[in-house]
User: Which sequence fits this backbone?
């Protein structure tokens, strides 16, 4: 999928979400009008109405972006997602996480999405949805499953496409609320939140940088394709190993699990 298709998919999904949100509004309106409980009707309908408006505005904005973006021609060879060192992260509206990974030319090189999408989860509050573990698939540019991330409250299990366990990451908070340690095998990845929640830094235990993630900034020439300023930009150290990159994406899943939910 290229960037134009991403914008089109986002527009369609946003419109569908807006229309779906109207279903409980209609059903509750009929029910409570018959019961003459109009004040209670307003309280229950209001969240659905607000969400419907937000998603319709999102549909309109992405529809306009399609006309503004510049088109590109791509080389036939597509690098492995693990070879990508600077990635733009985008999020499709979904009842759970659906994260697309693009290079600077607007070509999608991978996607991470929930393996168990459910219609009812559009309406579940996040604090309820967090109560049970979730499985996310890590797909390459050909939409072939490569890894599975099973996110639990304080751990992440990583399995390969044969469903064989690779490792388990354990979350270990520190006395500093902006720093969290994640242990796996005999390694540690340190995640540090910076700059008013617009930047994440990832380090090895010896302080060597693995990657950084920033919001609101990207190379100027990329902005002709990525319309908007709030796309997260992931920059990975060229010396990071494949194993570290896989664990890095697992941490991003945990961090962005409820984006666009």
Assistant:
């Amino acid at each position: 999928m290229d960037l134009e298709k991403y914008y089109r998919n986002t527009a369609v999904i946003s419109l569908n979400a807006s229309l779906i949100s109207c279903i409980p509004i209609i059903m509750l309106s009929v029910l409570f009008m018959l019961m003459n409980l109009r004040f209670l009707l307003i309280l229950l309908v209001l969240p659905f109405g607000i969400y419907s408006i937000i998603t319709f505005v999102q549909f309109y904005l992405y529809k306009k972006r399609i006309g503004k973006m510049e088109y590109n021609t791509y080389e036939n060879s597509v690098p492995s997602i693990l070879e990508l060192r600077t990635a733009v992260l985008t999020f499709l509206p979904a009842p759970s996480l659906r994260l697309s990974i693009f290079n600077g030319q607007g070509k999608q090189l991978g996607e991470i999405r929930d393996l168990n999408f459910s219609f009812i989860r559009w309406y579940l509050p996040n604090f309820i949805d967090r109560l049970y573990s979730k499985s996310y698939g890590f797909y390459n540019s050909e939409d072939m499953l490569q890894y599975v991330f099973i996110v639990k409250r304080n751990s992440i299990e990583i399995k390969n496409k044969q469903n064989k366990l690779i490792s388990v990451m354990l979350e270990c908070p520190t006395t500093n609320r902006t720093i969290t340690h994640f242990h796996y095998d005999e390694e540690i990845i340190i995640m540090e939140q910076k700059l008013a929640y617009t930047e994440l830094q990832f380090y090895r235990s010896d302080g060597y940088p693995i990657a950084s993630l920033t919001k609101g900034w990207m190379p100027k020439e990329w902005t002709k394709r990525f319309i908007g300023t709030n796309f997260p930009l992931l920059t990975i150290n060229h010396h990071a190993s494949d194993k570290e990159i896989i664990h890095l994406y697992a941490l991003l899943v945990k961090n962005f699990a409820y984006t666009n939910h």
